[in-house]
Specification:
The complex is a heterodimer. By secondary structure, chain A is α/β, with parallel strands linked by helices. Chain A has ten helices and twelve strands. Chain A has a single domain, classed as Rossmann fold. Helices cover 36% and strands 29% of the residues of chain A. Chain A starts with a strand and ends with a helix. Chain B is mainly beta. Chain B has one domain. In chain B, a hairpin with a 3-residue loop joins β3 and β4. The longest helix of chain B is centred in the last third of the chain and has 13 residues. Chain B starts with a helix and ends with a helix. The chains are: A alpha/beta, B mainly beta. Chains A and B meet through α2 and β7 of A and α2 and α3 of B.
């Protein structure tokens, strides 16, 4: 498996605050790679930087996707290469139906695939296809529709920003199954989460703290460390343990 | 081609299906300038147009207890570049009666046109009236559209109005609808307009919730770009117990456009409640970036967001 996404020494300052510092990360093709970290570790900012969102342009560092330097490409160009992002709180669109929304990212507007995508997230197509992606949907429904849209898009890499936030335990099982289905269809997943039990679905976990990756290893080991040492977050400045974790976790 | 055929041709280009004007089971009225070029009525509906020097006076009555099964089609317009059209409507929906109307207003070649509509509508008890108006204008912007309506809604009745002007330049637009709502009745008014160039949009939609448990919703969806200007006054007054209302205005601006929203919420009964929400601004960045993350170019993403809002 080759490296699909390579991030090197990213630095991001926003409004005078250092959000990401010297962050490097490599994601292998065909894997689920989780980014585990407490709130305010910079996880979502990393997602926006990778996607190229306009307020999240890194001051320095590079991002390579499919071996190509995408650091200065706009969001749509990155998406056309096969990179996409599912926001933690997906946007809502008045007047846009679920069917139209899902089809936006599809190369071939195939109704059967739209239906299949909704079924994958346990939403009955006949109840949802003509509904609007607006505030009448619950948070959980909106998240499922986002995953259905990703499934139908068939991207090469998707960044899932906290797909587990704000949903109940049953929905969580479904979202985990959906991630497995995405992986099976060939989509590499960069999974952002602050829950170590969700992170365990991954092949590799990177631990993020104060804007940088402090370690990487097997999900269970990194997750155990995270649970024991990082909840509650002892300090905004990461202690010296990562080195010892590094030896144990890799 | 005669005026009738020309109007039907314009109607078809505006998305209508001219075949309905040949169906004797569908009531319709086609007016070009001040000429009635086609009309048909159905049982229970009195539809009487009278030509005037500058337009047409129309009497529309739905008789007591009669529910007009099929949509009533109206088509107003001026095909030359210049002209004036004044439409005066007196409508009475009698107790227990109901009707739904769809009006197409077509001005495809407007350079110097004035289209005025003055409506007085009385809706009885246990009745419903739905009025949908769709405008199709040309690209010059040389048109003034001035619709005014005064509406009284009886008890246990429903009024729905939908106004849309999404095709062609708005020109100068000045809408003023005012409704009075009695016990257990509902008002649902929506206006959707897309202005560009130097279009000027002014809307006042007002509802007076005078009856116990009356309900009102006034909704505006406006998009303006270039140098277009919009001012939206949505007004709801609740003076009866258990009356409820909501005002909802969203305006999107692009370029040098300017938008103003003035929600007026007036409650004079302690058991009444009216809420409002208004949002004006650029297209939401997160919406645009979400669509861009699916592969749409920025311009297309904005088009999808604005198109959805005005849908």
């Amino acid at each position: 498996m080759g490296i699909l996404l390579r991030i090197e020494k990213i630095l991001l300052n926003l409004e005078g605050r250092q959000i990401l510092k010297d962050l490097s990360l490599s994601v292998k093709e065909g894997t689920i790679h989780s980014i585990l970290g407490s709130n305010a570790a910079g996880k979502s900012s990393l997602a926006y930087v990778i996607m190229g969102c306009c307020d999240y342009i890194a001051q320095s560092g590079t991002i390579h996707f499919l071996g190509e330097d995408i650091t200065s490409l706009p969001v749509s160009k990155r998406a056309k290469m096969g990179l996409t992002l599912a926001w933690q709180e997906p946007a809502r669109f008045e007047g846009l139906t679920v069917k139209d929304y899902i089809s936006v990212g599809m190369k071939n507007k195939d109704d059967a695939l739209i239906t299949e995508s909704l079924r994958h997230v346990l939403l009955e197509p006949s109840n949802y296809l003509e509904r609007q992606v607006d505030k009448t949907l619950s948070g959980g429904e909106r998240k499922r529709i986002e995953l259905a849209a990703i499934f139908a898009m068939r991207p090469k890499l998707v960044i899932l920003d906290e797909p587990d936030s704000g949903i109940d335990i049953l929905a969580l099982d479904n979202i985990i199954n959906m991630m497995k289905a995405l992986k099976k269809q060939g989509t590499t997943i960069l999974l952002i989460t602050h829950r170590e039990e969700v992170s365990e679905i991954a092949d590799v976990t990177s631990l993020m703290c104060s804007g940088t990756i402090v370690n990487e290893g097997r999900p269970k080991e990194v997750g155990k460390y995270f649970k024991e040492k990082c909840i509650p977050c002892p300090t905004k400045i990461f202690p010296s343990e990562p080195d010892s974790l590094s030896k144990g976790a890799r | 081609m005669q005026d009738y055929e020309l109007m039907l041709d314009a109607y078809a280009k505006a998305g209508g299906a001219p075949s309905i004007f040949k169906d004797s089971n569908i009531a319709h009225l086609v007016v070009h300038k001040n000429k009635v070029v086609g009309s048909n009525s159905v049982k229970g509906l009195i539809l009487e147009p009278k030509e005037t020097t500058s337009g047409v006076d129309i009497m529309l009555i739905v008789e007591k207890g009669m529910k007009i099964e099929k949509l009533v089609h109206l088509c107003f317009g001026i095909l030359p570049e210049e002209g004036i059209q004044e439409i005066n409507i007196k409508a009475r929906i009698e107790d227990g009666a109901g009707v739904k109307l769809l009006a197409h207003c077509v001005f495809p070649n407007a350079v110097k046109i004035v289209h005025k509509m003055q409506a007085e509508i009385e809706i009885g008890d246990d009745a419903y009236y739905e009025y949908n108006e769709v405008h199709f204008h040309g690209e010059s912007g040389g048109i003034e559209v001035i619709p005014k309506a005064r509406i009284k809604i009886g008890k246990n009745s429903h009024l729905v109005t939908n106004f849309s002007l999404l095709h062609g330049r708005v020109g100068v637009f000045d809408l003023d609808y005012e409704s009075e709502i009695l016990d257990n009745s509902t008002l649902d008014m929506t206006a959707k307009i897309y202005g560009y160039g130097d279009d000027k949009i002014k809307i006042r939609e007002a509802g007076f919730l005078k009856g116990r448990a009356s309900r009102g919703l006034i909704k505006s969806r406006i998009a303006v770009k270039d140098n277009a200007v919009s001012e939206i006054i949505n007004e709801l007054t609740a003076s009866a117990p258990e009356s409820r209302g909501h005002v909802d205005c969203v305006e999107i601006i692009q370029g040098n456009a300017q938008a103003k929203a003035i929600p007026i919420v007036n409650v004079t009964n302690e058991f009444a409640k009216v809420t409002h929400e208004a949002a004006i601004g650029r297209v939401d960045k997160k919406q645009v970036e979400t669509l861009m993350a699916r592969g749409l170019e920025e311009e297309k993403a904005i088009e999808v967001v604005v198109g959805g809002l005005l849908k």
